[in-house]
Write a structure and sequence with these properties.
Blueprint (H helix, E strand, L loop, with lengths): L1 E5 L8 H14 L4 E5 L5 H5 L9 H5 L10 E2 L5 E4 L5 H9 L7 H12 L4 E5 L6 H9 L2 E7 L8 H13 L7 E8 L7 H13 L12 H8 L4 H4 L4 H19 L13
Parallel strand pairs: 1-5, 1-6, 2-4, 2-5, 6-7
Antiparallel strand pairs: 3-4
The chain binds adenosine-5'-triphosphate and magnesium ion (MG).
């Protein structure tokens, strides 16, 4: 089981949409995915219909219950979730007081690895550089960064790379690597979006996924129907884009392509 953190401290860039849609697209291909919601807003949990009645990530994180008992099955075959509820916001303070507070999530999730029930575990991160995000980065094997196709797309990315480097250097997670950068909400009708994509590709080269996620209103509709885009508009370009991403993701995983920060260093 590999752990992938979907992270960018910038808000509203498509982290949750990507976590949900990529997970659903992988599940559709028969890959077994556990989506762990690390955002107290709980948007991914609501989309999957997991309300946390038997407990949530909060209870696992503070050590009250084993993570394995907090897993909920979803209506999607091959997709499970550990939901987040608002009390997770309070866990920031509780976890901060613990010894080894950076690696608490890693410790809590590690028994799941031995179960052999999931191929990938995706962490939907909150839009901040707090304790929850640091814990997610410490628990992850790789980080996938959604970037919105807009003028200031790269703003803040340096900071994220710096934090990633700190996590690595602190010894909390020396092997953390970058799975890729994903350009989201692409609108080819403007001149700006293609220019931004070109700039990001020039800068980060093959770290950027070939797959571009188009901007379509279908994404905004899907969560209000409590569904992923794969269910809401299965034949639409949004669903197709995330299926293509799932293919590209698996291809990279098979080849062992990952990167150190934004640099284009391969390792397998
Ligand atoms: N490709 C897209 N096209 C159009 N709208 C999109 C697309 N991707 C996401 N959205 C919409 O943009 C908004 C923000 O997306 P999302 O919640 O996935 O971002 P986020 O990075 O998880 O936000 P937060 O930082 O608050 O957690 C949502 O309303 C979502 O429906
Ligand atoms: Mg989100």
């Amino acid at each position: 089981m590999k752990i992938i953190a979907v992270a960018n401290q910038k808000g509203g860039v498509g982290k949750t949409t990507t976590t949900l849609s990529l997970s659903a697209a992988l599940a559709e291909k028969g890959v077994r995915v556990l989506l762990v919601d690390v955002d107290p807003q709980g948007n991914a949990s609501s989309a999957l219909g997991a309300s946390g009645e038997k407990g949530s990530l909060y209870h696992a994180l503070i050590g009250e219950k084993p993570a394995a008992e907090m897993v909920y099955s979803t209506r999607i075959e091959n997709l499970w979730t550990i939901p987040a509820t608002l009390d997770l916001a309070g866990a920031e303070v509780e976890v901060a007081r613990m010894e080894g507070h950076l690696t608490q999530l890693r410790r809590v999730l590690s028994p799941l690895k031995d179960l052999g029930l999931y191929d990938y575990l995706f962490l939907d991160c909150p839009p901040s550089l707090g304790i929850l995000m640091s814990n997610a980065l410490s628990a992850a094997d790789e980080i996938l960064v959604p970037i919105q196709c807009e003028y200031y797309a790269l703003e803040g990315l340096g900071l994220l790379m710096q934090v990633t480097e700190q996590i690595r250097a602190s010894g909390a997670n020396p092997d953390l690597s970058l799975c890729g950068l994903l350009m989201t909400m692409y609108d080819g009708r403007t001149n700006l979006n293609p220019a931004v994509v070109k700039e990001v590709r020039n800068h980060f080269q093959e770290v950027v996924f070939d797959t571009l996620i188009p901007r379509t209103v279908r994404f905004a509709e899907a969560p209000s129907h409590g569904r992923t885009i794969i269910e809401h508009d299965p034949a639409g370009q949004g669903a197709e884009a995330y299926r293509a991403l799932a293919g590209e993701f698996l291809e990279r995983q098979k080849k062992g392509v990952a990167f150190v920060s934004g640099a284009t260093a391969h390792h397998s």
